[in-house]
Write a structure and sequence with these properties.
Length: 172
Amino acid sequence: MQETMEATQAMIDHLAAVNRILEKNHYSKDRLIPILQEVQEVYKYLSKDMISYVATSIGVPPSRVYGVATFYAHFSLQPKGKYIVRLCDGTACHVKKSHSILAALYKKLKLSDEKRTTDDLLFTIETVSCLGACGLAPVMVVNEAVHGQMTPEKVDEILDPILAAEKVAVNQ
């Protein structure tokens, strides 16, 4: 019985943030996209359970919520890392060898085209068509920090301090 109560409390705690988001948006189906954006901001992705919960809470079929979540590229149905690394592969960046930076990122984080998020959910690598900073090509963004004129060597300079800070945080 104690185990069931603990599991129930964990579920309530897990849904507390989404409940606040739903309340703030008045459980309005007209606010589906902003609701999903906020939910993803908190949980880093939209799980099947979360899609179903939001749908039930605002009174629409889960298929509608799923349709919106899969239509817009902004939404993710897979867990993402704490640090989202976006590497531009637009024309200017591609010509300036962004692919070699991607290779350095994959090697550093032990990732690949098939596996883009680290097991510890610390990093996710995404390639994007354009970051709108062509004058700084090649460009990489880590969360909101823009890094221009990237090279494979700069990958270590940017990621090593993050990795060190995370290691310290885990040990405290």
